[in-house]
What we know:
Blueprint lengths: L1 H72 L6 H11 L1 H4 L3 E10 L4 H9 L17 E8 L3 H4 L10 H13 L3 E2 L16 E9 L8 H7 E10 H8 L10 E3 L9 E4 L13
Antiparallel strand pairs: 1-2, 1-5, 3-4, 4-5, 6-7
Amino acid sequence: MKFNTYKTMKLNYVLTFFFGISISILIGYSSYHINLDKKQMLFDSLTKKITHQIYNRMDTYREVLYSGLGFFEASNEVTRKEWSIFVTKLQIQKYFSGIQGLGYTLVLRENELEKNIKQIRSQGFESYKIFPKGKRDLYTSIIFLEPFNQRNIRAFGYDMYSEKIRRKAMNNAIETGLPSLSGKVKLVQENGIDEQTGFLFYAPLYKKNMPLETKQQRYDAIEGFVYAVFRTKDFLTNTIKDSLPLIDLKMYDGNTKSSNMLLYESNSQIDINENFNK
């Protein structure tokens, strides 16, 4: 009888012991997943915030481009000094941080090249030229770019239409009449120091009083582009700077996740959980 009681007590002890372990494991497992769910919610909230911040910033830059178009359309001829004053008053480095420069590129046909070069050189820029060399159906030349600092001067006279990624965005702007964003490019402004990928934002300026109903009419009427230049790292650092320490961010040009299409990588030192990615 005592033996049976002892066996029963021992069995109850063992059952209680294993039941306790089971409950501990269950609580631990539940706590892990509750914590994981919280982290997932935080991650989702953070990615939505970042996406929202980027879209809002690009909407703001779109308005900057439209203001530049309005400045041209309200004038018979915008001078270099007037463009400098206009951009200075915008205070882009203070209120529109992330923009490397705000400029105007002129569209030229082959028979207009020599006249343009003579005109710009007569303004004191004796070394001005349109580059790269080569025969093309259509040419462009960056004639205004503010701030006109050492980095941006490197792009003075550059024909953005000669490069396929820029040309694709410019063509899209011409055909739609709307601001168009380029894909990933290497900016002419890069000088080998802290080099970054870049992208551009174009808004088309058409000649006044010309028909714009068809695609061909828009190409015939295109006069130039007001455009903004962005260095990707600088743009993102200024746009989502509060969120960057909290997340490891990779941004690609398009839907292909390859090194060739990589625009930006934050290289955060945070622990990365592969369960969380967008």
